[in-house]
Predict the 3D structure of the following.
Amino acid sequence: MSRLRAALTPYALIFPGGLWLAIFFVVPMIVMLSLSLQSGSVEDGYAFTFNWHSYADGLANYHDQIIRSLLYGLASTALQIAIGFPVAYWIAFKGGSRKSVYLFLLLLPFLVSFVLRTISWQFLLSDNGILLGPLKDIGLLPDGFRVLATPFAVIAGLAYNFLPFMVLPMYVALERIDPRVLEAAQDLYASRFQTFLRVVLPLSLPGVFAGVLMTFVPATSDYVNASVLGGTNTTMIGNVIQNQYLVTQDYPTASALSFTLMALLLVGIFVYARALGTEDVLEVAAR
Amino acid sequence: MRQGLLRGRGLQIYTWLVIAWLVVPIAVMILFGFNDTHGRYNTAWQGFTFKWYGKLFEIGDLTQALVNSLLIAVLTMIIAGVLGSLIGLALGRYRFRGSATTNVVMFAAISCAEIVMGASLLSLFVTLAVPLGFWTIVISHVMFSISFVAVTVRARVMTLDRSLEEAARDLGAGTWTTFRLVTLPMIFPGVLAGSMLAFALSIDDFVITNFNAGGTVTFPLWIWGATRVGIPPQVNVMGTLIFAAGVLIAVANALVARRRT
């Protein structure tokens, strides 16, 4: 009796939360897949008709936005690695006793709402705002110069918003490197550069991989940065999905696009995991 | 050697520049909460004032939105805190069939694009004709927070020494007594950290809320709606106060942790 109870305990513990996730996370995915294959309208109702047209139409009409999203996602992720790696490196090896202070400073943006942060950048970068205005007044920049509504603004905004997610895992990986390994490399007459290239860099890669996993998905699927910092030529697939769901209310097309995005991201993660060896990524994911 | 020193210094300056880049928009937000602007437009510096701190709650809709956000965050913290902790305890403590599936679902929920989660949940609500509003927001926030709480608590449970619980049982404590007097106090730091994470995720969420809010407005949604007409200084003040509360909690937490060790 008590043995049975012991065997059932984990299931009892999981049940309420698991049920919540099943009903509000797993089932909705299936509902969305079904909705993407239906035809009809909000007024007349929908019927399930294996309407693959939603996918064909969605891809035909919005392939620009899909490709742009992937490009922006990749560009911002690359930018984050370039900006973040030296920071993670310096904090891990030279941060000394104040490491946690630097990490705290890196995390400060998360204490301000994501939307508010992005709007703050819009304000800073506006065409005649406090940054560009004075530069234009003294003639350093031409009057027509603008940052907002350019791809650069959107990519930089994405990089800004997700940078801490990139730096933290890289820092964790670098922090773990045993200093004796570096000493060993130098004892074996490796130059500083060689030590970095052949010891530090390979050992830091799991952190970079984890960082990419944590930043590529939110960056690619984001629509806040493109709306606030971008213009009509920088709309991403997230903007389209949001608009189709909440404004046009063309649910079949919207859910087809949403499903396409999810499939692309899943395939991306899968290919990425295979290319790097699944174990690494799963190990990182399990943390 | 000299060159190495220079390089170290260069990286230090670079790190501070990146930190400055991260902090600039926050500084601007705080500063313009003190701007003595007269109209609704808070775009040019007009002089220093504290008046917006006095007029903080003068915009009824905005105040309501902040109250909604806080209520939703507290409810999410409690519900996701309890449900997530139970899952974390089960995963960290027991080996059972289905634990791998649970881990996969949680990893999927953590790594899934927010917009896909928001859109699919909206698809469910639309299909079942569930009216959108306060409670659908709470449902969605609990949904995306549970996994984060569970992962945090699981990490804590895995570091625990099981012999303490066995000792309690040897001394005659029943299952419930052991849990209440031994297990719970030991995992409590994890439960607290997970619940606070749920609160933070909830109060900041925009994307999933945007999909499932209906006519209910939260703080991020209100700001989003106001972007085109201009953000009033009250938003800056509220953002500043939330930021200050976050900093205080983090610093207090660090001090407590330092004292313990």
Q: What stands out?
A: Residues 60-93 of chain B form the longest helix (34 residues). Chain B touches chain A through 82 residues (CB under 8 Å). The CA atoms of residues 140 and 227 of chain B lie 25 Å apart.
